[in-house]
């Protein structure tokens, strides 16, 4: 069967900041917590780790401080099978830190990343052979919010010789002015593959937007994936429009699920599978993140993944989340 455009197979490089993360354990508010669990948090390294789980050769490019947090971050990402050999160590700036504060209305995240090692990254990073020889490079909208030099890094990266994947990943706390809507739309519309949540698209570009409206706004990407939370994900491409419902699951914490979805979807594309199967693999991978308090959870075994991917459409639909009433 002939499918539409797919990115070339080869090494993927994910570029962006990762931080040490502290979260109460057991899950409760910071005000009542007696202990905190240390993990690693970073959208791009999350994607890299899940790609490695799927057997995709992948490297992570970033910078960390010459401190215990930085060594912990680097070691954790490497332990997942990601190449971290070109991650820079900054002797003058610290590794970023975030603290999660779970509550009845969701998890609030407090960032301590101003002046971090990764915020000093710039377009010279693109001179690294690791990224110049990549088949696909993955970025997010978090990086351009960190500093002017990080913004220039992402802008320049969009003209590189590799396929560019871009997750809008709007973090309002990182955009104190009103520039996010314009900057993120411009960057997204210049990428080859784009991920955006319908809710974040509505916050950025209009509260009444539907998935098809987002495609009107972002018409250039070869593939645009609009994620509608726990309901479905829709891909727009030269193959047409494909919507696949999300899987039912018990949500421990939603943080990291979008990154997991992106990794699963990209892994599917790199395998050359049909669009619907790539979306399915995105949903399956997202469930791995939804079931843990950290950003990176274990994938189902290969046999279960293949069984889920191979289910007839009607059976898959019965597994999917209930639609809005």
From TrEMBL:
Source organism, top-level taxon: Bacteria
Keyword Transferase on entry: yes
Residue ranges of domain Carbohydrate kinase PfkB in the record: 11-301
Cited InterPro entries: Carb_kinase_PfkB-like (IPR052700), PfkB_dom (IPR011611), Ribokinase-like (IPR029056)
UniProt keywords, alphabetically: Kinase, Transferase
Keyword Protease: no
Pfam families membership: PfkB
Molecular function per GO: kinase activity
Similarity field: Belongs to the carbohydrate kinase PfkB family.
Official protein name in the record: Sugar kinase
Source organism per UniProt: Streptomyces lutosisoli
């Amino acid at each position: 069967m002939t499918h539409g455009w797919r990115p070339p197979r080869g090494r993927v490089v994910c570029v962006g900041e990762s931080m040490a993360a502290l979260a109460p354990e057991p899950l409760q508010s910071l005000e009542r917590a007696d202990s905190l669990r240390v993990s690693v948090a970073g959208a791009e390294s999350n994607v890299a780790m899940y790609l490695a789980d799927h057997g995709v050769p992948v490297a992570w490019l970033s910078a960390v401080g010459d401190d215990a947090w930085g060594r912990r971050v680097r070691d954790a990402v490497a332990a997942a099978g990601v190449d971290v050999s070109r991650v820079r160590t900054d002797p003058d700036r610290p590794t970023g830190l975030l603290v999660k504060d779970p509550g009845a209305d969701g998890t609030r995240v407090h960032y301590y990343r101003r002046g971090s090692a990764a915020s000093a990254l710039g377009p010279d990073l693109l001179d690294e052979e690791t990224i110049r020889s990549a088949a696909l490079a993955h970025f997010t909208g978090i990086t351009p919010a960190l500093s002017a030099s990080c913004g220039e890094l992402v802008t320049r990266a969009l003209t590189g010789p590799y396929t560019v994947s871009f997750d809008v990943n709007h973090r309002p706390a990182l955009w104190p002015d009103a520039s996010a809507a314009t900057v993120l739309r411009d960057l997204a519309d210049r990428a080859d593959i784009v991920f955006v949540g319908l809710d974040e698209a509505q916050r950025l570009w209009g509260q009444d937007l539907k998935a098809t409206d987002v495609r009107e706004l972002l018409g250039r990407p070869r593939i645009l994936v609009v994620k509608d939370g726990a309901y479905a994900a829709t891909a727009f491409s030269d193959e047409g429009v494909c919507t696949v419902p999300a899987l039912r699951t018990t949500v421990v914490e939603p943080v990291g699920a979008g990154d997991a979805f992106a990794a699963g979807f990209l892994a599917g594309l790199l395998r050359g599978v049909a669009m619907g199967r790539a979306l399915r693999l995105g949903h399956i991978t997202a469930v791995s993140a939804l079931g843990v308090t950290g950003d990176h959870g274990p994938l189902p075994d290969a046999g279960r993944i293949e069984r889920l991917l191979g289910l007839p459409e009607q059976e898959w639909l019965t597994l999917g989340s209930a639609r809005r009433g």
